[in-house]
Amino acid sequence: MDTQQELRKKFVVPIGPQHPALKEPGHFEITVDGEIVTAASARLGYVHRGIEKGVEKGNWAQGMYMLERICGICSHVHATAYALGVEALAGVQAPPRAQAIRVLVAELERVHSHFLWLGVAAHEGGFDTLFMYSWRDRELIMDVLEGLTGNRVNYSCNVLGGVKFDVDETQADAIRKAIDFLEPRTHHYLKVVTTDETLIGRTRGVGRLNQEQADALGAVGPTARASGVPRDIRVDAPYAAYPDFPVKTITATAGDLEAKFVCRLQELFESYRVIREILDKLPPGDLTVKVKPRVPAGETISRVEAPRGELFYYLKSSGGPNPDRVKVRTPSLCNWGTVLVTAPGHKLADVPMLIAGIDPCFSCNDRLVTIHRRADAETWTWARLRQYGIEYYR
Amino acid sequence: MDTAQTLTTAQTLLQPVTVGAPKIEGHRLDIPVKREDLLRAVKILVDAHWGYLSAITGLDLPWPKPKPGIKPAEPAPEAGPLEDELEALYHFASGAAVATIRVRVPYHDTRIPSICPIIPSATLYERELQEMLGFIVEGTPVPDKLLLPDDWPAGLYPLRKSFTGAELAGK
Fold it and tell me: Is A337 in contact with B120 (Cβ distance < 8 A)?
């Protein structure tokens, strides 16, 4: 049978590009036999913004602002991975206090990201009450982050060579208070996701990824850990202040959606512990060291643990004032394969949950927009836009 | 096993396919290989269960370098004439150690073999190499566009240094 004939026999359900699961664009073609999925493929790139190319145009410091905008959820880990990489190339090390603040913000970010995911995943499973409660609780962390950095998202905490702000006792107490509230809530959610009959019906045994598959597919983060693959950069290759404030890898063995819920929720307790520890033992000292505008020629690889797993940065400098190449590989890209492999055999209705299960971040793995200019459209230069910005806030 | 030891293991394993001197820098190991040996090199690491494929980076190495005051590119592993080249970096990670298998190809012949028969998840990275830099990844299972729009002009590779965006004017 030729391919054309074979294709006619199949029924393909297109999902997306408008919010296939999360409110972000991605396109999936799900081949079904009745209700049962027989094959799945993904098409990404709807929010590709050409950031890797863009970074080559600006200087090393400007790169930070661009890269931080790759993701609106885990912006801080992008900036951290980049800052650590550039510092390694420049041969400098941020002061211990700065490193600790980087980890503090990273863990706060993980907490907000996991709560966000919990809500989205519950919503995909039709459990909107859990969605509402978890997002209400997430607001506490958003408030803390805003109090700390001035921003709810894109906190802009890092600079090359350190961090921008300090943490005082008032802020530390506000964070402790939020964590004290969230910890029992997390215990409660853990009980809910493992006992609620309706949710279990959507998660237990669904999308099971065994250890061998997770390992072979190169899964990372909670997606890998829920299948018993203990990959966690914070533990495997501790960076920033993680050598001083170690975390424990949380794994589960079932590899199904339920295990992904359990794994992410249990990770929160580790985050709470580390956050408290850092607040109690914040090393004294400066917040920044100087990094020269020209970075010596060389290459480096910087890996950090984003809420979704290993975030990989490859940086190359040719000794000039701007980066020669910045390659970003986000955790979502590694985890897509697991969805496409586990989907066959499931019901079509399970697909949104399977997609949400890896906590995908489309903006992260897409990075170009084609702009259709109208004849009367005006194009602003960078200099003009910059000037506009300065005058606007004057 | 500590990081240095892990890297030494990779270096020893890859010795038969290494071209020139491998470079160890901190937690990183660079192994330049010939294009013909790429599959063999990848298979060696996979068979030895040495880490996992963490990412594939594509580099554009135009010659002469476009900017002044920059040290010249090292000669290609094939030690061929100095010419415009592309380089693909296959990063394998094991704990804190990262081993990078590097393959260089000239602009006029950018074919590299697909490693998907060994590591199926490499498909996304290989598609990126094809559309962003103009590698021809022979045997990659899905050659369609991944990140760029379907109507993106053929032969235009955004991550090449020569690409400025002006090429798209009027599109």
Answer: yes
Helix A257-280 and helix A96-124, axial crossing angle in degrees, nearest 10:
150
Residue ranges of E strands in A86-227: 158-159, 162-163
> A309 - beta bridge partners?
A306
Through-space distance between the first and last CA atoms of chain B, rounded to whole angstroms = 55
Over residues B19-65, the pLDDT tens digits come to 877 777 788 999 999 999 999 999 999 999 898 899 999 999 887 65
Instruction: Please give the interface size between A and B, counted as residue pairs whose CB atoms are below 8 Å apart.
Output: 93
What residue has token string 């970074």?
A55
User: Strand order of the sheet with strand A309-317?
Assistant: A298-306, A309-317, A325-329
**Which DSSP category does A154 fall into?**
S
- Between chains, do A310 and B54 touch, taking CB under 8 Å as contact? yes
Instruction: Read off the pTM.
Output: 0.87
Chain B: nearest CA to A379, how far in angstroms? 13
Secondary structure letter of residue B141 according to DSSP: S
How distant is the Cα of B64 from the closest Cα of chain A, in angstroms? 14
Give start and end residues of each alpha helix (H) in B48-171. Answer: 123-133
Give the dihedral of Cα atoms B121, B125, B127, B128; nearest 10 deg: 160
